[in-house]
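[09:14] KT: can someone run the structure on this one? pasting the chain below
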Amino acid sequence: MTEPISGDATPGEVIRVMVVDDHAIVRRGLQAYIDTVASLHMIGEAADGQQAIAQLQQWQTLGEPLPDVILMDLQMPNMGGVEATEAIARAHPEVKVVVLTSFGEVERVHAALAAGAAGYLLKDAEPDEVATAVRAAAAGEVHLDSAVARQLTRRMAAPQVGLASLTAREREILILVAHGYSNRDIAHRLVISERTARTHVSNVLSKLQLSSRTQAALLAIREGLIPAPS
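[09:31] RB: done, structure tokens below
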């Protein structure tokens, strides 16, 4: 991995960037571009969400500066972009995440924004737009690709279905169900009654029009909420 910089630059002058993508060629391409932009500095990379979180924890333990912005792929093995974004937003709220997506992943984009992403870019975006999105995220703003934003807006205006129909707690319940937790385990983990956990699970299955916990697990894997089993 790229070594973190020492942090000599005046805050605000250089934006520290991390790239998380399971394709090495994408990471190399982004690094090559970032290296040409004076206000950006790539300090690290990871091949999946688990590696990214581990790297952040290591830097924090060593007292090294964390990235200001992470460019995060959505579909990766072990831990996808949505789950990683949620974990990073919870553990490192000062680190902003801009997700990298393809045009057909609007459902995952919605999930990523709900998980705390500060914007998203299409993978075929022009290089200058990458810098624009990174600068916007570092400034506490949200960058939305206009084409995907229009499609996302149309979906949000329509009656919510699928993952978009779930509350934040129900999304959390879905992830736990997909990981194989029983109602009792869910209740213990979330400090709620088993009856409440059972109600939440029932609501999730009903909203997603699923008939079993196995179907819920498969949907969570397909939508990138949890990694596919190796």
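[09:33] KT: thanks! The radius of gyration is 18 Å.
[09:34] RB: yep, looked fine to me
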